[in-house]
Amino acid sequence: xxxxxxxxxxxxxxxxxxxxxxxxxxxxxxxxxxxxxxxxxxxxxxxxxxxxxxxxxxxxxxxxxxxxxxxxxxxxxxxxxxxxxxxxxxxxxxxxxxxxxxxxxxxxxxxxxxxxxxxxxxxxxxxxxxxxxxxxxxxxxxxxxxxxxxxxxxxxxxxxxxxxxxxxxxxxxxxxxxxxxxxxxxxxxxxxxxxxxxxxxxxxxxxxxxxxxxxxxxxxxxxxxxxxxxxxxxxxxxxxxxxxxxxxxxxxxxxxxxxxxxxxxxxxxxxxxxxxxxxxxxxxxxxxxxxxxxxxxxxxxxxxxxxxxxxxxxxxxxxxxxxxxxxxxxxxxxxxxxxxxxxxxxxxxxxxxxxxxxxxxxxxxxxxxxxxxxxxxxxxxxxxxxxxxxxxxxxxxxxxxxxxxxxxxxxxxxxxxxxxxxxxxxxxxxxxxxxxxxxxxxxxxxxxxxxxxxxxxxxxxxxxxxxxxxxxxxxxxxxxxxxxxxxxxxxxxxxxxxxxx
Length: 501
Ligand code: ADP
Ligand code: MG
Hints:
Number of helices: 20
Number of strands: 12
Bound molecules: adenosine-5'-diphosphate, magnesium ion
Mean pLDDT: 85
Shape: flat
Low-confidence stretches: 108-112, 137-146
Oligomer: single chain
Radius of gyration: 32 Å
Structural class: alpha/beta
């Protein structure tokens, strides 16, 4: 029989032993990983990015690494995640996973805290990276490589695709306004260079989704064909790179660089207008890619027939494939876009406010999203509830409206709907208090928002004379100044009327 003391001792010994195993295990696993990593990266990078890492725990097949800062974490995720994941899986099997413990300095924490750590998962983003490609670049010339997206390797180059991962097809709401462009884009994304949509040219006015769709195509290609080299570039970036290459006398590198791309997405091609040399080089790149079965996707603000300042031979190339436009979305699509955005960003905004945005901003999705975010910001900064009145105020900053005609009938309808009273009541001779108030409000807003005379307003609101209308307006003003709840009614009604302007 063991006495109690012996039992306790052996229990502590057991704990100690477990602890030793755990310490040994995670350190051992990490040590093995480091050996592989060391063989795969330069000694400099190893010293900078891997020596400071400490393995702190191995639990449920999750290896936790402690890193010295948030920046460090982001850098590892950006540059070494593939290598890290591979080595960890090699050590721990397919279930092996990685987590971080990030040391934060006190400035980012509470008042008197010293350094503390936070946990962070590895971001499970689908890698939107291009595989390295060989390029006939003479790196020994000592000149800088003309492309800011190129990271020189020993023999190979990594071309950064410049894709924004949230601009994917899942987040691109379908509607009548974009049906053809969207499905053509999807077809291209699933079969780049193999459809007759080459080039695929998408045009529209500002803020209707050209850039989003171009990225979505690129992302779709990367999802289906990770080995393909995709590049998104705005025509402006393209121009600037070209100018740089002229300055650095390495135009050939510039052209070679673009000739290696499998799917080239050129945004806002109308920006090439009047830039003959850039158009020239783009023409050659276009031809080379097209002849080699590579995919081109182009966006612009007008269809090719209306593009001015672009060479004819380039325009005729644009017409080879499919030209399709994005139109202004209808109300349902606008609502769906707003709801998607709110869902993705975890926003909560009352339905009537979302409806207000979709009703009020009709021609530009970017403005619509801007208004949504701005309403949220206003409410959280000023600690105000999100009301239709607040929304209207914010929306006003986003739309340059030319006021539309508002009629007495429209105002009456609005007021009656607001107070849930039948329309005919307002025109009856009844003197019931709530009806009188509604009638007076209708008169007040009719005076402020229509060009009708007091006499006309009176005659249409229960057959009253102009003095009654004048009296009604004074009464409403008084009540707005003195009665809080009345002011709220008036404010809300006014917002609703303004929305329809
Ligand atoms: P453009 O390039 O035509 O000016 P963008 O592609 O920049 O327009 O789109 C403006 C904003 O509207 C972006 O935030 C984009 O995500 C959003 N957007 C446009 N169309 C849609 C859509 N069909 N579904 C969801 N969001 C959209
Ligand atoms: Mg754009």
